[in-house]
Amino acid sequence: MTKWGMVIDLDKCTGCQACTTACAMENSRLPGESWQDVLFYHEGTYPNVKLSWLPRPCMQCENPSCVAVCPTKATWKTEDGVVLVDWDKCIGCKYCMIACPYGVRFYMDEKPVVQPDVREVFPGDGDRIWNPPYKMPDHLEDRKKGIGIQPPGVVSKCTFCYHKISKAPKGVADLDEDNPETREYTPACVRVCPPKARYFGDLDNPDSKVNQLIANKRGVRLKEETGNKPQVYYLSGGGAPVVPGERSQRRG
Amino acid sequence: MERTVATASRRRFLQATGAGSALALGGPSLVPGEAGSGAVQAQPAAATKIVKNICHQCPARCGIDVYVTNGRVHAIYGTPDHPISNGKLCPKGPLGIYVLYDPDRWKGPMKRTNPKKGRNEDPKFVPISWDEALKTVADRLNALREKGESHRFAILYGRGWGASCAGLLGTFGKLYGSPNVPIGHSSMCSDGSIIAKKATDGNAGYNAHDYRHTNYILMFGCGFLDAFRPYNNNMQIWGYIRGEKSPKTRVTAVDVHVNTTLAAADRGLLIKPGTDGALALAIAHVILSEGLWERSFVGDFVDGVNRFKTGQTVDPATFEEKWVKGLVEWWNVELKDRTPAWAAKVTTLRERDILATAREFGTTRPAMAIMERGAHAHSNGIYNAMAIHTLNALVGSLFAEGGLMYQMPPPYGDLPANADDYMDDYAKNGPWKQYPRIDLKGHEDGYLLANNMMQEVGPNHLAGKPYKLDTIMFYLTNPIWTAPNGQIWEQALQDVFVIDTSPFPSETGHFADLILPDHTYLERMQDAPTYPFEGYPLTQLRVPAVKPLYDTKYFGDTLIEIGKRMKGPMGEYYKKLESAENVIRHLAKGFEKNPGDNGVDSFEKWVEKGVWYKKPYLWRQVRGEFFEWDGKGYNKPMTAEEVKAKLLKTPSGKFEIRSGLLEANADWIAAKTGRDKAKLMFPIWEEPKHPGGGDLYLVTPKQALHAEGRGHNIPMVIAHLQPVVGGRGEAFVEIHPETARQRGIKDKDWVKIRSSVGEIRVRCRLFEGTRPDTIVLPMEWGHWRAGRWSMAVPGGHSGECTVNQSDRITGQCNYYTTKVTVERA
Amino acid sequence: MATATLPKLGFKPSPYLVGAGALFLVALLYTIYLKVTLGHHGFNTTNYGVFWGLPIVAYDYFLLTSTGLTLLASLPLTLGLRQFDPIAKRCIWLALAALVGGVSILFLELAHPIRALWAAPLNFQTASPLFWKILCVGAYTIVLVLMGLAFARGAAPADIPRGLAVLATLLALAITLIAGSVYGMIVFRPFWYGGELPVAFLIEAFMGAIAFLVFFTYLIHGFAPAMVPERTRALFTGSLGALAAGAVFLHVLFVVTRTVTGLWSYGEGLQVWQYTVDQPLYWAALIGGGLVPLVIFAVPTLRAQPWLQILGSLLVAAGLLASRYEFVINGQLLPPFKGSWAASPLEYAPSQLEWMLVIVGVLLANTIYAALESWSSTKEA
User: Fold this and answer.
1) Please, are residues B460 and B445 in contact by the beta-carbon 8 Å criterion?
2) Which residues of C touch B (CB under 8 A)?
3) pTM of the model
């Protein structure tokens, strides 16, 4: 059975945020609804300041906290390993947001991050919280899988571009944007990444490049202590924690 | 602004006759992506088509695939077989869709009805037809010409793309009779490096680079991973040279604050603003004194014994120069005392870091030194840039594999008519010829050696010196905002007829008398030869993805339509040109005899593929010998004359450390700047002059999310612009915590930034990564007339504090050199 | 307020009911107006801030006060301790009122509250504490309504079916413990995590219940201690007062041990404890809402004073709200994985709309309780 996973090489990542914007446009997200986000951290004092950054999609955990805590099973995990939100079942309680250690979930009914509110410029039709002219095509949206623009009052999150990857031929080991046969199935964040710091493939397939990279370049999962076991691995070389502890950070 | 039904049908009529692009309406053979192109491919859904275009958000010209479904654009990805984008995009690329659907766009041509102009004056624009608009302009221009005052018409352009838009301007000026058509923005861009290269290796252009094969990059003040072009491709390169290539390319980056470029490099050097030249000189000193220079390219001591010792002069006769001129003289008059210890004091860098950098750079081949505005947007910019570029000569990377070269132009076909055949007497000999350019470019009272001096247009017109303009037209430039101290322009544009062609409201447009809005780029057919990239010729095409949403007109067509309405043979010329699309079709004829590597040999194929290119770059320097491509390899040796004609285009045919260009103008330079005639032609150290009257350097860089002025109304950009200090929806000035503490400023306080020309209020973030003597405020926000999102970003505009000072030799506007005071607001 | 004690069946709206009801309607209309015009924009919870704000705090507060009151009522109804009969009816009525008030706040906060009623039971996500909470609260509501109506129709405590009472007790216990595990199960939030959370919630529920009982008993008798029936007063001075002291003592103990444990460790995430003890609110809740009422209820001579009983109850109720607020909010102040995009710690203050939600809930609870009390004119027993 396919288990979709992602590998992100932090040595190659240049912190440009193309993954964030490509995701935002492919999936018609609101400003601040960063299904994919790049997190920046810095510590140290002048002139020895360390600046680091972390591209953060949904971790699509093997043991997802969000699925466990959802009272209506609106959040669920597909057979091929992707955690999705059924917008017909979500009641907007936000327990999943509380429970997610990686902060990847969004409830967009609240104050807009950027003024004026884009939702008022491109108002939704009751069925969607907004409706811009560049929305993804209707036939790609799927409320039961949290794909497309959400209705009011529900939580949304990264779908690993499920509307794309679900159409990939069965048994394919990797979805590589440089391969014309798999390009259109590749998630937007992986496809756009200029330094090719992101890879996407089947963690259950021993031939996949993602498994090879994790082995060769010491891929790590983040926040191991939660036991959530993300399906997103980071190649940072050495396995050192990438996200500094709030408490331990050296500040100026 | 109401659009009536009548004007809508007029729009269609105009489209059919003027800008009408049959391609936008989708002739099946011309819409790419539908005809199966090759073997089994993952195709987008059947109702979706892909149209080729070029991203508009910076000059890199990445080819993009625009996804259109049911007439709506909903995704943009990099074109897979385009050499610059290779299927990838920077963060700005995907957001281009916002530009098309921006609700604040102008919906059609308009004229001003409020005669008063000012920041707080409502122009009271009313919609007019294109006929009326074009007639207004033509009548005005014809009248001016009749009076013999055609020199008082100026066209200023910023991001010109190619032969079908900005490329038409020079001819227009020649036929019409104005030295001010066009005035380019390059002096407000990066002429500092262009002229420095012209002065040393004879090529007035940005370098093309062979990054893929270089083993060392030394970067001065160019945000390689922030905004340096071609940004998208830079990052692709980065992933390769840092993640895949063996050996891994080493990088040292120099800047005034910690950014992603410095953080990702192996060594980040936080340098005092304006002192990059001192660092470069010290590195050169080490290269020479430790014998690290590339002897096959530079030359050597006749007996092989290195006489470059700190503090000691060298007899020039003992050194035999190969491809450089003036090395020993340079050592003697300038370089012999420029030690790392000296440079450490000037730059505030550690001596051990300067030494380590110099040794790494000097012992790694191939190595290249690159720079942009951070290094040369200062009063000593010419010398900083020359010193840095000379490093490339010292290590022999000019025209070498893994080094730098220059960009070859595309083999465009001829235009439908030859302009020389349409020049009347007035054009050849009219009174306009006696007038200098309004910006005094090329004039000894102004900037004799500059390419352009756009930042002087406003101030000069205001002062009436050399004269007052009558009409100004702006294309892809917004000088009230982008010029330093733009408040002057607000005064200057009061008494001149302003025509703005931007699709969007802007500060300059606020002062316009006439708005002739362009299409946005996804609606345009437009050519764009590549920004300097990898040297081999490459040119690409924008193909409209959708029919124009509003009653707009491509600038190239606007210009041609105005031209048609000019009296005399000039009108005939433009009637021959017909339309911008016709121009482009003629350009494409050049491909018939020069098919591109991807098979593009016609207009139709160009539309289908979006890009024409032909590898390789034709010349290469190998261990001091130059070769030309013979079809199979770099095998044909070049004579010195050929090298001088094609590559090192200086008076001596060599890399001139002792610049012949500057030496030829020594009298003028000495008179205007007081520099020493014995030294001013060498890369020398000179203390920069910092205007403004304050105690902190104000530096205003571009950010990855927004490199040039066209994305400030995009909500996604606003939400992600300053990731290092977490600006979601607002803009910050970075300030060092101790610097802030001394002024009683706390994190996220509002502060006042003041210089001799203006004062602004911005919120601040304390950031340890900023030099304590410097504040960093991205030049992105502070719009007071633009789209609704742009204007809602709190905080002032850095330009209002930036003093208009330019490098006297290059004309480069010194954006990063003003000194300001900061206090709690 | 104090009417003659002639037994008279039928509904007689008291000034308390009229007042609470009127205020409730006004507040409700204003809140609906705000909700319609602002939607969730009117909330100060955001994706880069705190997710669960004052409304959730208030909902939990009311819900657990309700379950606490039911547990208190279990003393006579389930355990058969007849000396506690005088308080049974009032406890159940207060429990019902608090439940409705609390749930109404939740319904105003949730985007799709009605959906929860069918989506939760039909999908049966057994791993989720919140699922069980919804299920139990649903059943609990039905049970409470039955018991409340029974009392309203004049039933005596001994008349309440034992089975119903046992069910009520079990459900109240379950809800309280599950409510604790909603927070206590979240392993990456060490401020909340722990198996002791359900126990702490249980103690707090019980403590709050006694406080509410005492306060509203006096309120419904017009704050005239002489009007309170003798048996009830004896309970307050005697066993219930002592129980109150015990509950407050255990609550204070929990707070102190959690605080000391949290402050001692350098563990990532526990720095919130330092932030917590730096807030005046924490000390106000600990001392004013803990130590002072502890003394009041522990010292027999103090405990016997009606006005001190009222004061002690108010202090406990207010302190408990503050404690719950700090607990829920502070547990969210360290944003997970937001990097520079969010401040650390986060800042939160309830918005006007969030306050209005709470006020609506409070007024609704009061209205319902007042209605129940008005149902029969006898305030005996």
Assistant:
1) no
2) 48, 339-343
3) 0.92
